[in-house]
């Protein structure tokens, strides 16, 4: 599974989600982190909602449900398991 994390520098919520994703085990995925400040279309789409986690599909991207900043690694793992199957 290919995941995309829309983020921006110095965003503690983005950094927190990325750290949790890096701790997930038992779900095979690759993670691409996209800095929304590098492209105007990304910035316009996500400036008020980062971090945004998406799953890459053949037909485009699917935005995954937003997790609470207090979500545990187990909760992140369960979300990914749901979308990996």
From TrEMBL:
Ranges that cross the membrane: none
Superkingdom field: Bacteria
A Pfam family: Glrx-like
SUPFAM superfamilies: Thioredoxin-like (SSF52833)
Name of the protein in question: Glutaredoxin-like domain (DUF836)
């Amino acid at each position: 599974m290919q995941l995309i994390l829309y983020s921006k520098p110095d965003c503690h919520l983005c950094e927190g989600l990325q750290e949790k994703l890096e701790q997930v085990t038992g779900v095979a995925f690759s993670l691409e982190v996209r800095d929304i400040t590098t492209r105007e279309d990304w910035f316009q789409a996500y400036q008020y909602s980062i971090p945004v986690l998406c799953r890459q599909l053949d037909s485009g991207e699917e935005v995954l449900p937003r997790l609470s900043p207090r979500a545990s690694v187990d909760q992140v793992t369960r979300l990914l398991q749901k979308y990996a199957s």
